[in-house]
Amino acid sequence: MATMLNKRVTGAFGKQAPTRARVAAVRPSRSAVRVSASAATEQSVDFKTMRDGIKVAAEESLLTPRFYTTDFDEMERLFSLELNKNLDMEEFDAMLAEFKLDYNQRHFVRNESFKAAAEKITGPTRKIFIEFLERSCTAEFSGFLLYKELGRRLKATNPCVAEIFTLMSRDEARHAGFLNKAMSDFNLALDLGFLTKNRKYTFFKPKFIFYATYLSEKIGYWRYISIYRHLQRNPDNQLYPLFEYFENWCQDENRHGDFFSAVLKSQPDMISDWAAKLWSRFFCLSVYITMYLNDHQRDAFYSSLGLNTTQFNQHVIIETNKSTERIFPAVPDVENPEFFRRMDLLIQYNSKIVEIGRMNVPDAVKALLRLPLLERMVAEVFQIFIMTPKDCGSYDLAENKAALVY
């Protein structure tokens, strides 16, 4: 590994900061984070390509970004002005007006610094940057495809909501295109048209789409803004100019999340009864655990930015959970010390499973070696799920609003 990946950095999410502590960032020495051809021997970035400059997409797994589809007929019923009297069209009209302003229309403008910065990122760091860009691009493009189709299908049923979905697809396409162009700085790119036709689509019922997309947008906001703020405090870790765009970029994610909050309020049965509480907690844990495992498998990427992966993830989960409390009827109590103790056990078991995957033994042997670890992971996830949750929910749905204390 390049020297840069082994550096010690202090900061709000820095290597030496204690878990969940918030401390002032200390600017590291420039020599600790500079990446250049002279800092490390260039290593070949071994990625399969479909053709010159077009990367074969990473293999799909439980932890990779997915493409989604849903029951569009049910979506039409849920957004029907005739069938659903809970639709607050004044709120949706106000949101549509804001989406039309398109605050970031001129934000995603590249300059010559992108290519120059990419050429200085070498060796293992170059590989993990490409992987980060691919995963991010795939996730954004997934949102584009789903929102675009919803905008098309709902046009006759609810023109206002349909146009919001179309404008959100505009945002996601802009993000995906910007990320794919960034990949081209590293002499690779994704064939997004090929992915559209050939990637598997996961079916989710509409209410699960609402839970999952709300969480993905809100956690995206907290990830982007946290990275941006960290790099503003530690400019020597700003290895690539993409991160300078995150402040405005994350506001797109936040607006999308607010829209899905309004959608959930228009479907009170999805955020009010005992089943809604179970599903809310389930999706929170699904998103939090997936991010925690994914990011710890890619610790080298966060280290390259001077971030402490564990502390960064815990901060993002805690802040996302606080946002989610405002709409979901129940959420995990992520500030209970037991929560992250068990999450860290999942990291240990998952790391051992990854190590087994690298062993030069038959697949049948690998499966047997993985089995007890998988059983322990399932047991830990169950223990996290049955922890006492936090009861919460939207003030807008409270029966006695006069009794609320803000």
From TrEMBL:
<protein>
    <recommendedName>
        <fullName>magnesium-protoporphyrin IX monomethyl ester (oxidative) cyclase</fullName>
        <ecNumber>1.14.13.81</ecNumber>
    </recommendedName>
</protein>
<dbReference type="GO" id="GO:0015979">
    <property type="term" value="P:photosynthesis"/>
</dbReference>
<dbReference type="GO" id="GO:0009535">
    <property type="term" value="C:chloroplast thylakoid membrane"/>
</dbReference>
<dbReference type="InterPro" id="IPR009078">
    <property type="entry name" value="Ferritin-like_SF"/>
</dbReference>
<feature type="domain" description="Rubrerythrin diiron-binding">
    <location>
        <begin position="131"/>
        <end position="263"/>
    </location>
</feature>
<dbReference type="InterPro" id="IPR008434">
    <property type="entry name" value="AcsF"/>
</dbReference>
<dbReference type="GO" id="GO:0048529">
    <property type="term" value="F:magnesium-protoporphyrin IX monomethyl ester (oxidative) cyclase activity"/>
</dbReference>
<comment type="pathway">
    <text>Porphyrin-containing compound metabolism; chlorophyll biosynthesis.</text>
</comment>
<keyword id="KW-0408">Iron</keyword>
<keyword id="KW-0479">Metal-binding</keyword>
<dbReference type="GO" id="GO:0046872">
    <property type="term" value="F:metal ion binding"/>
</dbReference>
<keyword id="KW-0521">NADP</keyword>
<dbReference type="InterPro" id="IPR003251">
    <property type="entry name" value="Rr_diiron-bd_dom"/>
</dbReference>
<dbReference type="GO" id="GO:0015995">
    <property type="term" value="P:chlorophyll biosynthetic process"/>
</dbReference>
<dbReference type="Pfam" id="PF02915">
    <property type="entry name" value="Rubrerythrin"/>
</dbReference>
<keyword id="KW-0560">Oxidoreductase</keyword>
<comment type="similarity">
    <text>Belongs to the AcsF family.</text>
</comment>
<keyword id="KW-0149">Chlorophyll biosynthesis</keyword>
<keyword id="KW-0602">Photosynthesis</keyword>
